[in-house]
Amino acid sequence: MMNVLILGSGGREHAFAYKIKESRLCKNLFVAPGNSGTAEIAVNLDIQVDQFVQIESAIIKHEISLVVVGPEAPLVEGFHDYITQNNKLDNISVIGPKKVAAQLEGSKDFAKEFLNRHNIPTAAHETFTVDNISSGYDYIDNTNPPYVLKADGLAAGKGVLIIDNPEEAKKSLYEMLVNSQFGSASSSVVVEEFLDGIELSCFVLTDGETYKLLPSAKDYKRIGESDTGLNTGGMGAISPPPFLSDSLMKKIENEIINPTIQGLKKDKIEYQGFIFFGLIKVGDEPYVIEYNVRMGDPETEAVIPRIKSDFLELLHSVNSGSLSDYNLIIDDNPATTVFLVSGGYPELYEKNKQIFGLETVTNSMVFHAGAIKKDEKIFTSGGRVLAITSLANTIQQALEKSYESIKKINFEGMNFRKDIGFDL
Ligand code: AMP
Ligand code: GLY
């Protein structure tokens, strides 16, 4: 039995908490800072994910032996390194890589260099800074549109621009490099070839030697129906993507996942945690769009409910050297997640709206994201509020269940996409 701490406050972290709570190995479960959903099943700690000193004290006080890091920012800032520097804590399992490996997400240039070094398929690219901006203009002139411009560093999911016109692409390159459009994140910019295809997300848990393949998913990023309008943190997800055939999965493992794990070993980069492969299928060929060093959100809310075996035992095996022996059992039934969001999101929206009807939902799982508990009532506290996940024999039936459950929930301004899965 062990005490576990989850860092983060979204639907992803509520899904982790729900699964870890079921484990026969879980003694006490803490979430920092958590939300109204995690408050029901764990102890929320009033600590933010960037407060390393306070997290360290909480780990000691609550005798935590395993920490699951939800979001990327603390990993890129070196949370894992910080915790294991404390001699008293060197036995703790941190699920999430150290700073060096977290650059796979923290620096697009680092990721592209890694992909090229290990011959992993990805879009052709070059990286530019203010010092060679004119080469950037030449690169744009010599590439076919559309142009994909990516701020090198973390930019809260906003640092990628896709532009049709070469003059506008050059203007944007100037804005990013010279006028720091994305702050220091865009002091270096990756310009890459546009890949036309369908996106999917694959996930593994690795100890740096071996890995377990977790369920894959497809997420829906745009706010509007038929994938239109602004990008969001994610409006829904489906696991598995029905177009992911066995032969495509084999290709992904042979050409992308295995070479990534082997590449980390060759480069002598330790890795403990999740790797999220953001992929695009062009024709029958998979390419890496990006690496993330954590699980996806909302994908996790569709992926986790399909894991039948003991999830904490799986996480624990990463540090105990037994990952390769672990028998991971996945539910064959698909899962669908539909996100309920605040009216106006992803632009300006109001918070603090009371949420009604949650207790009447029985056929779906409800993962809380931007929601908090005050005086036994639940209120919205963010743009993406609740993730409604259902499992069924088919994607269609699972979606019907989620949409039936949604009818029972309401808060002022509530919005959601009615067409999750429309393209499948
Ligand atoms: P990233 O932050 O690298 O995942 O990029 C954000 C989104 O931009 C991706 O999910 C894709 O939809 C799109 N994107 C990124 N790179 C490319 C590319 N080379 N070709 C086409 N679309 C891309
Ligand atoms: N769903 C995409 C992400 O978590 O970055």
Report on the architecture of this protein.
This protein has 424 residues and is of the alpha+beta class. The protein folds into 4 domains: 2-98, Rossmann fold (3-Layer(aba) Sandwich), CATH 3.40.50; 124-193, 2-Layer Sandwich (Dna Ligase, domain 1); 198-325, D-amino Acid Aminotransferase, Chain A, domain 1 (2-Layer Sandwich), CATH 3.30.470.20; 335-406, Phosphoribosylglycinamide synthetase, C-terminal domain (Glycinamide Ribonucleotide Synthetase, Chain A, domain 4). It has helices at 11-21, 36-41, 52-61, 73-76, 79-85, 99-106, 108-117, 133-141, 166-177, 246-266, 299-303, 311-320, 395-406, and strands at 2-8, 26-33, 43-44, 64-69, 93-95, 125-128, 147-151, 160-163, 189-192, 198-206, 211-224, 228-239, 273-282, 285-292, 335-341, 365-368, 371-374, 377-380, 384-391. Strand 7 (147-151) and strand 8 (160-163) form a beta hairpin. Helix 6 (99-106) crosses helix 7 (108-117) and helix 8 packs antiparallel against helix 9 (166-177). The site of glycine has 6 residues, from loops.
Brief synopsis:
This protein is of the alpha+beta class and 424 residues long. The protein has helices at residues 11-21, 36-41, 52-61, 73-76, 79-85, 99-106, 108-117, 133-141, 166-177, 246-266, 299-303, 311-320, 395-406, and strands at 2-8, 26-33, 43-44, 64-69, 93-95, 125-128, 147-151, 160-163, 189-192, 198-206, 211-224, 228-239, 273-282, 285-292, 335-341, 365-368, 371-374, 377-380, 384-391.
